[in-house]
């Protein structure tokens, strides 16, 4: 088989790139190690930036999102149960976010990919990248026991944090920057109406809590927990008691309890690899960087990367100019680092750190109170939260 772009991974980065290239008439094949049900079943992101929403609209994949997604014009912070609102729309000159689950985004991307004839190979075993720094790269894998080979011009490594693409950049060239947080998020999904019509990010003496949602009838809640916490130690009632306590009595009065149909613990990590290009291999999304989920940036960053990459590849095939391709890593990283900073900062002011003493907690509370009273500080939060421009 031969194609122009071999895309490794059919997550948000890989599938979005496939759609962007298809729109520009650039031939691509997606090679994915799992099946569609597995990818659509993963409960992950919930908040889409304005730029992600705009892109889905431009690609004509926004019909269901516009009908079923929830536009949020603001978000809320809580300090020991006391809420204040950030009016994102007013502070950013009209930008908002869309609450629409990653699972739904993936379903829409897969449905439209099938209609548009985008080629996706599922359940590819033992995927390997070859000659990424030569002029004839190729990808190999096993499909139902048979060996397969895909020759291409370029490879897009969109295979997430644990994928095979990133290690193809030699260690002598690859630099990594990392912070592993000493806690995780215990999250649940329940078929109950949300406690509040907008999200609440809560800093509480006992640790962080987040009230989020997927729809008017489905709630998503998270609490900060130690990394070695066991799910079996968190029966539903214990979770509801703890999240209610951390959100505070005013919000707790509106928390509707119900059976959790999904419960999981996710570790928190900041991670960046540089550069995001080596020879004919480009990295995009979680393959290149991870943010703690506090800023709701992970999926959105993946989308921004592939927007830049698709532009660069389109220019290359249109005019033969390699300028965009050569600039891809620097351009993507400039935005990645800003999102890393925001996610790290938002995590640092909302979570309880093990080494935190009375002074450190007072600093958090003072910072949150400063944000509450300062339009300038609220604007910084709002413009990062809705998503920085794609420059
Ligand atoms: P992935 O989604 O990891 O996709 C990579 C794909 O590559 C997968 O399908 C995988 O099966 C495939 N793959 C892996 N290895 C191979 C291989 N060797 N060969 C072939 N295929 C391979 N982000 C937000 O923007 N907003 C949020 O609100 C948010 N909340 C989150 C909450 C939680 C609890 C978690 C865990 C994450 C959250 N994120 C959020 C982050 C977001 O889910 C990720 O950043 C996003 O999925 C990244 O997309 P990706 O395509 O780069 O990687
Ligand atoms: C979610 O609903 O899953 C969610 C929302 C906001 C975040 C992280 C996760 O910051």
Strand order of the largest sheet: 6-5-14-15-16-13-17-20
Instruction: Tell the overall outline.
Output: globular
Rounded to the nearest angstrom, the radius of gyration is: 21 Å
- Which structural class fits the helix and strand makeup? alpha+beta
Largest sheet: 8 strands, mixed
The stretches of 5 or more residues where confidence is low (pLDDT under 50) are none
> Which ligands does the model contain, each kind named once?
flavin-adenine dinucleotide, P-hydroxybenzoic acid
Strand content: 25-35%
Report the count of strand segments. 20
Mean of residue pLDDT? Answer: 97
How far is the N terminus from the C terminus? 35 Å
The amount of helix comes to 25-40%
Report the total helices.
Answer: 12
Model description:
- With 391 residues, the protein is α+β, with helices and mostly antiparallel strands.
- The protein is built from twelve helices and 20 strands.
- It has helices at 12-23, 36-41, 50-58, 63-68, 88-91, 102-116, 236-247, 249-252, 298-319, 323-350, 358-373, 375-386; strands at 5-8, 28-31, 47-48, 70-72, 75-79, 82-86, 97-99, 119-121, 125-130, 138-143, 146-151, 154-157, 175-190, 200-203, 209-215, 218-225, 260-274, 277-278, 281-283, 289-290.
- The strands form four sheets. It has an eight-stranded mixed beta sheet with strand order 6-5-14-15-16-13-17-20. A six-stranded mixed beta sheet has the order 8-2-1-12-19-18.
- Helix 1 (12-23) runs parallel beside helix 6 and helix 11 (358-373) packs across helix 12 (375-386).
- It starts with a strand and ends in a 5-residue tail after the last helix.
- P-hydroxybenzoic acid (PHB) is lined by residues 46-47, 199, 212, 220, 293-294, 296.
């Amino acid at each position: 088989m031969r194609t122009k772009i071999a895309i490794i991974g059919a997550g948000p980065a890989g599938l979005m790139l496939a759609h962007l290239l298809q729109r520009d008439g650039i031939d691509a094949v997606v090679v994915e190690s799992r099946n569609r049900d597995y990818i659509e079943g993963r409960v992950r992101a919930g908040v889409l930036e304005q730029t992600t929403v705009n892109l889905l609209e431009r690609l004509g994949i926004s019909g269901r999102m516009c009908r079923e997604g929830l536009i949020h014009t603001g978000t809320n912070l809580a300090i020991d149960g006391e809420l204040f609102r950030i009016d994102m729309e007013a502070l950013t000159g009209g930008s908002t976010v869309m609450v629409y689950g990653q699972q739904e985004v993936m379903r829409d991307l897969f449905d439209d990919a099938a209609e548009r004839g985008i080629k996706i190979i599922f359940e590819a075993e033992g995927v390997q990248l070859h000659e990424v720094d030569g002029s004839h790269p190729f990808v190999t894998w096993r499909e139902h026991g048979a060996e397969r080979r895909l020759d291409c011009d370029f490879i897009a490594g969109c295979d997430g944090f644990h994928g095979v693409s990133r290690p193809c950049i030699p260690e002598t060239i690859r630099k990594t920057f990392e912070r592993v947080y000493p806690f995780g998020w215990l999250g649940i999904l329940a078929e109950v109406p949300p406690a509040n019509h907008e999200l609440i990010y809560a800093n509480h003496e006992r640790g962080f809590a987040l009230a989020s949602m997927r729809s008017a009838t489905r709630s998503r809640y998270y609490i900060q927990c130690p990394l070695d916490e066991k799910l079996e130690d968190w029966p539903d009632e214990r979770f509801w008691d703890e999240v209610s306590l951390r959100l505070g009595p005013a919000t707790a009065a509106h928390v509707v309890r119900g059976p959790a149909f999904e419960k999981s613990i996710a570790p928190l990590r900041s991670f960046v690899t540089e550069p995001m290009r080596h020879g004919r291999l480009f990295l995009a999304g979680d393959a290149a960087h991870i943010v703690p989920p506090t800023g709701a940036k992970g999926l959105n960053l993946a989308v921004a990367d592939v927007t830049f990459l698709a532009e660069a590849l389109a220019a290359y095939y249109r005019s033969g100019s390699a300028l965009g391709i050569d600039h891809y890593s620097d351009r993507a990283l400039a935005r990645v680092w800003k999102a890393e900073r925001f996610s790290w900062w938002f995590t640092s002011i909302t979570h309880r750190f093990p080494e935190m003493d009375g002074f450190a907690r007072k600093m958090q509370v003072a910072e949150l109170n400063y944000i509450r009273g300062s339009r300038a500080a609220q604007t910084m939060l709002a413009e990062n939260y809705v998503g920085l421009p794609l420059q």
